[in-house]
Specification:
Layout: H1 2-29, E1 35-37, E2 42-46, E3 51-58, E4 65-72, E5 77-79, E6 83-85, E7 97-105, E8 109-118, E9 124-134
Parallel strand pairs: 1-3, 2-9
Antiparallel strand pairs: 3-7, 4-8, 5-7, 6-7, 8-9
Amino acid sequence: MTKTFKTISTLAMALFLAAGLLASPATAAKKDVTLVVTELPAQVRLIPGESIVLSLSTNVTTGYTWDTSVSGTKKAIKVNKGVYAAPSETGMVGVPGTTTWMITAKSVGTATVTVKTTSPGGQTSSDGKLKIIVMKK
């Protein structure tokens, strides 16, 4: 009886472990992953509902500011206003932080986000482009 019990216990444990291993990829697949773009120019492909983050180094102590504009199929994406995050406690003056924009795919089309820098004197220059192709599901 003991040998039979051990065999059943071993089989039950093996089935339990196998079920756990089979369930793990499904659980991991549900985890949201965010693409972060940190260099321009770049190109990404999304489907409606997906989002990416555009994150660029920013040093507000210089007086320069970032701005974005959208061309192409403007309704294909939504670009949220850039949010500045100061660097973590470095204790140093003039250390750059990060400006981040969340970009969400809305409908099929191709849009280009142009990032522009404005100097303290008001001159504007184009610093890079992010081409976003929104495809059907």
